[in-house]
């Protein structure tokens, strides 16, 4: 079967090509990819090429398919898995395989397995690890966003607090505590807000910081403070660039307590150092943002580590349980992965969007791989709709859903392009 895919040959060398896939083996599964959202980790991969720890050294002759936040339909199942999977099933997948100590992962390491394509082959280790998951949700895009949501969920579960009586760690963010999400008006930060307001260890307060008024305003539009208050959580969006003394003012917001859980969502030294200064007694700071500089450093207060039990960890990726939780919550409508998405495009938009990801404003760039369409901001749908009936329909649909991408809008695209 032929597939069309975005393949990486080296540093910043991406090519959209059509080629023949081999016949699947008895322990493999052929899938049709429908949606693939673009991750900043893929940008880092493309910037580094062979230098990336997950990239094979022969990509110049055996290029890999990029993209790891994808979902679609199962097309053909090898004999080994026919009792578990059937053609026509929707699927989601967990890309963090860690198979027998290998760093190999879809979107980074495989010739025929990645998300930026029309069809791909899922190798046996994915099923062996339980990382191919049937998906029951209405839309494909929410299954794609299950992967980044699983990373967020993993961060919430990985935070911990100490117990001086028996030294056991209480896992998860502190129930009834203060959460600070720093640099939190990007796609992942908004996902963290969406999850935090329904997490079983529900906090008393979530404070989200940013330095961009436009991003703060959009955050308020998609997850309003008023709506969250109705769920019993106080939510505040604050611009730290406008604070004369951010430490003092953020401490005042916490009523002098400090923050039990701090998530650092941007790899910026002063932001990490500010987060450290705001930790409460037994506070946990999760350095969630992945820097491109492998020598990235920031100062921490070791006096507080010793005397007030403050502690720091980092999380990257989620596990399969986190992905199952993400997909279950999304299917039930208990979290809104759509708050992440600001742009939508087709397979032909993936190369430019990936190469220029840091400079494209907004949140997640969601792509559909079965058709071609320029990468388009949701906020531009209305203007384009003045002359284009497709964008008029998309604009009306998104307006009816608080400006968010949604299952109805996805269906409109599929009908238009015959998916």
Task: Break the fold down into its secondary structure elements and pairings.
Layout: E1 2-10, E2 13-20, E3 29-38, H1 40-48, E4 64-65, E5 69-77, E6 90-93, E7 119-122, H2 124-128, E8 132-134, H3 141-144, H4 146-158, E9 160-161, E10 170-171, E11 178-182, H5 187-196, E12 205-210, H6 213-222, H7 225-229, E13 234-239, H8 246-253, E14 259-264, H9 269-277, E15 279-287, H10 302-307, E16 311-313, H11 320-332, E17 341-346, H12 350-355, E18 364-368, E19 376-377, H13 381-384, H14 389-399, H15 407-417
Parallel strand pairs: 11-12, 11-14, 12-13, 14-15, 15-16, 17-18
Antiparallel strand pairs: 1-2, 1-4, 3-5, 3-7, 3-18, 5-6, 6-8, 9-10, 17-19
Helix pairs in contact: 4-5, 4-11, 14-15
What report would you give on this structure?
- With 419 residues, the chain is an alpha/beta fold.
- The chain contains 15 helices and 19 strands.
- Strands 3, 5, 6, 7, 8, 17, 18 and 19 form an eight-stranded mixed β-sheet that branches. It has a six-stranded parallel β-sheet with strand order 13-12-11-14-15-16, with helices on both faces. It has a three-stranded antiparallel β-sheet with strand order 2-1-4, with no helix packed on it.
- Helix 14 packs antiparallel against helix 15.
